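Narrative summary of target 7.
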Amino acid sequence: MRRLALLLLLSGCGSEESENRSGPVPKEAPAAPIPAPSAENEQASRAAAATVSEYYEAIARRDYPAAWRLRERRPGDTLERFAAGFALYADYRATVGMPTLPVRQDGALWVAVPVQLYGRRRDGAPFGSVGRVTLKRAAGGDRWRIVG
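Modeled conformation, tokenized:
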């Protein structure tokens, strides 16, 4: 093991002369400036993040109908099934992060919002996870819906 470490150390060493033989180092082109987001896009991102905050605040209060109204429906979804998914938790909290700027696709706007979930299960065990919530706003619409 010591021999391998010594070989790796020595292989990284070189004289100035060998480094100069490789030729001049090409210069990188300067990076193009990133345009500032529009006020409309920033407002849309903030509104999406506010929807996620409202959603998790409703879950923390156990107001599952209020949280349910913020979700896009999928076939087979029911409020009862949604609420039952939180039965194991005594305390359910979220920290909402910085949303992405909206992306237009298929006639709708899409935003992803990072979220850290944490709390306690009914048995007293803590839980935590990190992920992101995807939201969609239909073209011409004013309400964000959680889709994933």
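Residues 1-20 have pLDDT under 50 and may be disordered.
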